[in-house]
Structure formats: structure tokens, C-alpha cells
Amino acid sequence: MTRLPRIALTSGEPAGIGPELCAIVARGAWPCELVCLGDRALLAERAAATGGGLILHDYRRAETRAHVPGELRVAHAPLAVAADPGRLDSRNASYVLSLLDAAMSGAVTHEFDAIVTAPVQKSVINEAGIAFTGHTEYLAAHSGVARPVMLLVAGDLRVALATTHLPLRAVSAAITHSLLREVIDVLATDLARLFGLARPRILVCGVNPHAGESGHLGHEEIDVIAPALEDARARGIDVTGPLPADTAFVPARLAGCDAVLAMYHDQGLPVLKHAGFGRAVNVTLGLPFIRTSVDHGTALELAGTGRADAGSLEAALALAIEIAGRRH
After folding, report:
1. Tens digit of each residue's pLDDT (9 = 90 or more) over 149-206
2. Which fold would CATH assign to domain 147-280?
3. Could you give the residue range(s) of every CATH 3.40.718.10 domain in the chain?
4. Torsion-angle region of residue 289: left (phi > 0), alpha (psi -120 to 50) or beta?
5. Kind plus residue range of the DSSP H or E element containing 18
6. How far apart (Å, rounded) are the C-alpha atoms in residues 210 and 244?
7. pLDDT in tens, 5-40
8. One CATH from 2.60.120.280, 3.10.290.10, 3.40.50.2000, 3.40.718.10 for 1-145+287-328
């Protein structure tokens, strides 16, 4: 890029560890313009809780300013009510979503080159009477995107999900030929667009044990997944499978692929988080902007203690900067 990327960092659930993680990250050296969206007083309070000072500046769009370690530009958004560490309050649900809305608006208009999100608490947003299943679905719905894809990255390991936040009993019915076609297309396109992989190699898991054992343990692989993969190959996409999930992640197979497509949330993410918890990054594919996030939740029990680990947010910011630089 001819200029430093400007990154929007949303501070997430105010009762969780997000605000203090933002403060910790701001003390590092980053080759970007870093703008944190959140309540200024809250960020100052949680910065103090992490054991060090942080100089806060008001964010002005027209002003170009490289990030300075120990300083943070803040796009102030006021809390609805004061936030106590570890104590959820549904009255702040709209505040949390307003941070995402502002970040999206800026990303769409190219004010921001990428969005990095600290964790939110889905339950308290739902308790406020707002239907919300997660960042991925919210960002997609408000960007007019029909098929977002969740990709988790830990070093060289990339795991994408065909379905995300569904009860296990609903997974089989959700896996259709059209769903897989759309997910595979988004995955292949964005592995090339965002990660620079010209012809990505994708391993695809089956949904049943042993990938259905030739139909003895289920027919989804025969009736749905295999035909969808044949269709993808006919369109020039390098896909292998369907493979039993318990052997798709062995080192020899991973060495020959660029990403693994798992059929459901807890098929792929336990492996990814075992390999890289605390440094893994959640990337939403298919959006009209770059979005990365942490691989963990709000950790209410750690909020305000100064003991939260910022490793995943640091990795998410580093990847956002890398992708933004590559895209430009």
C-alpha cells in the first residue's frame, strides 16, 4: 500500500475482556492507523486495570496518524449505562451493535481498510430482544451478503465451516448441494483474494463417522457432498473428499492442502483451537470488506482483573494488516 492501512477495532461487550484487550494491543507497535470504537471512559478505566497508562486521542477521519505505541485513537460511542466488569447488562446491547454498525459503515465507504472485532456476548443481546446469532451472521445480513463463510486461521492451518451456529440435530438437513456450492465458491475465491493462493487446495470432510462408511453410517456423503465436490471440480476448484474428519487433520493430509472445509462447528474448531488457541484468528469470508476477530469469548470472569491474554486479538490485528496490505 502507498499508505498505512486504517483498521477499525471494535471493543466488544463492555462487561467482558474486550476493552482491556484493546488497551493492551494499543501498547504494541503496529504498521497501521489504529482506531478503536468504544466508550472513551470505559477504555481509560480498563487500560488502568491492565497496569499501565494509555494516552487516548479523539479520532478524526480527515486526520492521518500512524499508530504510536501507548496511544490510541478513539471513535467515541457512549455506553447506555455504566459497565461493571463481569456483570452483563442488556441495556448496553444496542451500544455493542452500534460499534459494529459504525465499523461496517466505515469499511464500506473505505474509511477503514479492515475491521477487527473484540468478542461480544450473544446471550445478552438476545435478552435485549434483538435476534442475534453471532458476528458472522450479523455482519453478513447488514452487508447484503447471502453466504458468509467462517474461516479460522492458526498459522498455516485454515479451517472453514459449511454450517456455523446450528444445533447438531439441524446440521444434516442444512447441508445441501446448493449450500456446499456457495460455501466452496466463497472459500476458493477468498483464499485467492485475501490470502494470495491462486488455486487453493481444499480438503472437505464428510458429516458422518468414517464419511458414512459407504452408506452404512449415513448417506449425506453419497447423496449430497460427493456430487457437490464433483460439481466444484468441473468448475476448476481443487477439492478432495469427502474425507473422514478423524483423518482429514492428520499432518500428511494437511501438508498437501491450503484449507479444510468442515461440515459443522464442533467438527472443525476443536482441532483448530487445540492447534492454536490464544493465537487463532476468525476471518469472515464473502464480505465486501476485511473482518478478523478473536478465537474466544468475553471471558467475564477475567474482565477487569488485568489477567486477560491479548494473543488472539494481536494475531487478528496482524492478519488484518497483512490482508489489507496484500489487497492494496
Report:
1. 999 999 999 999 999 889 999 999 999 999 999 999 999 999 999 999 999 999 999 9
2. Isopropylmalate Dehydrogenase (3.40.718)
3. 1-145+287-328, 147-280
4. beta
5. helix 18-26
6. 5
7. 999 999 999 999 999 999 999 999 999 999 999 999
8. 3.40.718.10
